[in-house]
Every structure is written in structure tokens, then in C-alpha cells.
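Our consortium's second objective concerns turning raw sequence data into structural hypotheses that experimental partners can test. To show how far this objective has progressed, the report includes one record in full. It was chosen at random from the queue rather than selected for favorable results. The single chain below, 235 residues long, was entered without modification.
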Amino acid sequence: MELAAINFPTGSSNRTIREFKPDYMTADGKRIPSFALATSRKQSGEIVDSFMKRGNDLEFITYYSRIFKTISPEELADRAEELIDKIVLIGAANDPYDLHVTPVSAAMSGINIHAYTVATILSGRYFYQLHRYTNWAIAFISCFIVIMISLMINIGVKGLIMRIVQVTLLYLTIRLGYYFFIEHNIIINFSYSLMMLTFGLFAGDIWIGMTTIITWIYNKINHIRESRTENIYTQ
């Protein structure tokens, strides 16, 4: 018999469960596997060893469209042959004290979450999250492009063009994020890019507004000076 942890890495009972911990540190400094990891190792130690080489403290659960066969205790005797060569998890599917919020359900049982976690480990389809510095680099480049376009445009409809650029970049950001997530299991945190684009355009608007006001004041002062000069010559 192997000791394993059934805990979910959540700080509160109503937090959405998106991730799982492969293993946990005990009070005496030992590490014990999670229930999903220990179960997966019974099926394939090679897959688990490859999974653990990723070295992540937290891993995303892939809630793909999977149908897990559910057999009630009353049906077990008649459907026992369906369990041959299968991973069997025993737990309550409708316990109100063991229902959790997930990205695909507002009330998913803990045993179902463990099933998705085991399936995630054994499927080999893991999510890859870009490093925080890479996300910031993407955000900086996006903001740099927007600011450069803003500085290069000198026509009267500059504000309209910049809004079109903003909407276009936001659309491309969402499309790229969706593409990499669905096709390559890569998670890109575009919140940095969206934040930089927003503040970049806001800074551009402030700059345009300040230059417009300063230019108006400068022209007004020159006009007053020219008017005074004309009055002096007229006298």
C-alpha cells in the first residue's frame, strides 16, 4: 500500500481548480505523491518518470472532452467485466461537500477531478506556460510597435487610426492566444500585453493632448505678439 495525498492546491473552498501538485512536502521533510500521480505510476512508471522531469511545482489539468464511465455499487456485480484492465477510482460523485468549481463546471466532484488529473498525466498532453519574462518581452514589443506607429503618423485622423490599430492588435492577441492554447497547449499570459497596450495608447493620447494644447498656446501667444507689433506700427 502506498501513501498519497488527495489534496487540491487551493487556498479557499470556492477557488476554481485549474492545477494540481504532483507531490507534497510533509512536516518531517519527506515528499509524498499526489493521489493522481501514485495512481498513474501503477499504470505506467515510465510516463510518470517522464512527467516528473518537467520539474513543475504545479501542473495544469487538461479538462478535455472525456467521458468517464460511472458504475454505481448496485450495478457493480453485473458490470464487473467492464473494469478489466481499467483504472478504477472509487468515490462519491454527488457528495455536496466534495463539489468544486472547475473551468468546465460549477460543481464537479472531487473524484472526477482526480480522474481528469490521472488522464492528464497518462495522456502526455501537458500545458506549457511561457516564462514571465517572455510574456513581458511580448508586451514590450507590442507596446513599442504601437508607440512607433503613433509617432510616425502625423495626419489629422491619427486618433482614428490608432483606435483601429488598437482593436486590430487586441484581436490578433486573442487569436494568437487561442491558437497556441488549442493547437500547441502553450499558455501565453497576454494580460501583460493588454495592460502595456492600454497604457501605451493612454500615454500616446496624453502626449497628443499635451502637444496640441502647447501648440495652441504657442500660436495664441505669437498671435498676440503679432497683433501688438501691428498696433505699434499703425500708431
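The partners drew two points from this record. Helices lie at 35-43, 45-52, 110-123, 132-152, 158-184, 191-234. The chain is about 50% helix and 10% strand. Both points have been shared with the crystallography group to help prioritize constructs.
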